[in-house]
Amino acid sequence: MIRNYFSSKVGRSHIRHGVNCQDYSDTIFVKDMCISCIADGVGSAIHSEVASKMAVENVIEYLDSWYKKHDVDEREILLRISEAYSYSLDKLNTFIKKKGGNELEYDTTLDCVIYYNNHIYYGHSGDGGILALDYDGKYHIITSPQKGEDGISVIPFRLKDFWEFVKVEAPMCSVLMATDGVFDQLAIGVYKCFPIGIHVRLAELLMNLSEKNLSDELLEMYKNQVFDFLSNNNAINDDITVSVIYDDSIIPLRMSDDYYTPPNWDEIIEEKNSLLYNDQSK
Predict the structure, then answer these.
(1) What is the spatial distance between Cα 219 and Cα 242, in angstroms, rounded to a whole number?
(2) Structure pTM?
């Protein structure tokens, strides 16, 4: 059975400054498909909260309407996601025009996953990310953050040329989407002292749920505990959005024990600082 939990929660920096949550997320089930979307309104855009909500709702609306009227054709799922992205952007632009606003005021990211027959089909725009867990128990980073030339600014949803639509060919038993505040803690990068590049302990907590045999009520409780844990993580100041889809009938195998070794943060910080100082000296 395909299960899902998701939520968007205001981050500690926004709480300090009295700013509402600029993330948005939603999930629906249609014809054995789980369709989930997340968005992160760009902080510099004054209407990003509106943009993230509209971006998600428009994609969900399009895909829900399509699949309630048509059979699922796996060959066309990516096409439907791309159509949903175009539909969403068109509706957002129409809204902005009616308001007499500027598109720069409505910047957001947008990620969408359709999980069907244990395959992941996704659309990707921005600096959020998607992580997958295979049947052997190995985690995979399947998207790269879309950043500007400065390596800091985000490439927003309105720039269609950067949209990505991909099917992950290998079947997966779990998939996670997260906005950058959480995803950056999961995909922490490859270092000499930590060659895996993925915070597997955190990924396990968020994604590997099939062996827990959670009822709907227990899954809701688990979700609340997860978001409380993330909210209390001092490394996460941004808004927190996570959406996880998993097949509770498939329990992945275990990798060797060293695969689950937690990152050595002190060594990672030391190595990162060393690389930074070397770059400045060039």
Answers:
(1) 14
(2) 0.94
* DSSP line for 130-143: EEEEETTS-EEE--
Residues 238-253: b if buried by 16+ CB within 10 A, e if exposed: bbbbbbbbbbbeebbe
Q: What gap in Å lies between CA 271 and CA 197, rounded to an integer? A: 14
Say whether pLDDT at 281 is over 50. no
Q: For residue 262, which of 204, 182, 179, 175 has the smallest C-alpha distance?
A: 204
CB 245 within 8 A of CB 36: yes
Name the DSSP class of 6. Answer: E
Which of 60, 31, 1 shows the shortest CA–CA distance to 216?
1
Distance CA 169, CA 264 (A): 33
- CB-CB contact of 11 with 238 (8 Å): yes
pLDDT of residue 242: 98
